[in-house]
Amino acid sequence: xxxxxxxxxxxxxxxxxxxxxxxxxxxxxxxxxxxxxxxxxxxxxxxxxxxxxxxxxxxxxxxxxxxxxxxxxxxxxxxxxxxxxxxxxxxxxxxxxxxxxxxxxxxxxxxxxxxxxxxxxxxxxxxxxxxxxxxxxxxxxxxxxxxxxxxxxxxxxxxxxxxxxxxxxxxxxxxxxxxxxxxxxxxxxxxxxxxxxxxxxxxxxxxxxxxxxxxxxxxxxxxxxxxxxxxxxxxxxxxxxxxxxxxxxxxxxxxxxxxxxxxxxxxxxxxxxxxxxxxxxxxxxxxxxxxxxxxxxxxxxxxxxxxxxxxxxxxxxxxxxxxxxxxxxxxxxxxxxxxxxxxxxxxxxxxxxxxxxxxxxxxxxxxxxxxxxxxxxxxxxxxxxxxxxxxxxxxxxxxxxxxxxxxxxxxxxxxxxxxxxxxxxxxxxxxxxxxxxxxxxxxxxxxxxxxxxxxxxxxxxxxxxx
Length: 466
Known about the structure:
Layout: E1 5-6, H1 9-14, E2 28-30, H2 35-48, E3 52-55, E4 71-74, E5 82-85, E6 90-94, H3 99-108, E7 111-112, H4 125-130, H5 138-141, E8 148-154, E9 160-164, H6 182-185, E10 194-201, E11 203-204, E12 208-216, H7 219-231, E13 237-243, H8 245-256, E14 273-281, H9 285-301, E15 304-313, H10 315-337, E16 345-349, H11 358-372, E17 378-382, E18 387-394, H12 397-416, H13 435-438, H14 441-454
Parallel strand pairs: 2-4, 3-4
Antiparallel strand pairs: 1-2, 5-6, 6-10, 7-11, 8-9, 8-10, 12-14, 12-15, 13-14, 13-17, 16-18, 17-18
Helix pairs in contact: 8-10, 11-12
């Protein structure tokens, strides 16, 4: 089958937006169904020097999955591949598969696919690999990179190549950067090649998982508890998620209401903050009670409200907890979309610092916001990794400019603390201005050299990262 580039205005418009708040209109849209069709598209694009931007379900918050020219390469239509090897504990899957569906297929075999981005029901495997997606359970399991065993990639030339991790304990052959080509493509945001298939490692499915929602009077107590939980030998969290007063207000309103959110009233701060934790435990009542006692003891030492601890036990209850957490970015995305016409949008950060410095970093960012006269960010997310999300809403272009100035000052301070400008969402188009805050010129030069070697014409994902 010959790959077709669709130029119908309605088709192009349907692929013009992602979760970043930006809207870029591609010149054409390609919807390949096989690696061979992807290869054909890239060979043709290379011959005509046409840019090609790969995209999955377009849940990117950085504009990585949209383009204002060239071809938008939608990977959603790749023919499904889902081959689970239960004994060897891996799954071979096409890049267009929905991550949540793959996780359920693995669970049916008693196995766990660990990466768990909040958008797992709305993102493809290829997209998760391209941005090295992580999520709440990264605290225990690491990001997507740690679970990618092999990839099949279409290079910028149209060549189809396969790369597999070496199972070596020692290797001194050449530069470390060339030891494992799989790592070139994980987190490359479509700039080095198009992943069409992957093998992902699987783990034994935990016997039982419990979640705890623990309320605190203030941010300082909550984040002190998070740091203590990282270091306490009596508990073993697989996630430590923080919600400030604004985030708790959104989550509680989302749980209580029926129907769509009222975006005019949801930003009502709650009376306190909250930490959500999960831990895997062996089956058995005694083990369960022991784990709960350890968590409650640690929480109360750090000022938790003893009458506001909520337990989530069982898959249905954990799914409810996940839905409550997801309501925060979902509401903020919708709120930001209200102001696109006026030149505003949601501005989200994903910086991270060493976890012991998280309270210091958030306090600093709030002070910068106060001095600038902007509304405070809704702050929530992966506190166990020192990694919060801060969501601002700019109502117009003037507020957008003011918020971006605050974000830049925050990132400069974060980097000075030994942090990163992007912990999980990548750079895309929105954050490339801030990458040099963290990376020295020589490191950026090495990245450009890799990009030139794999994509000498610069046709892959133009505008992402560089």
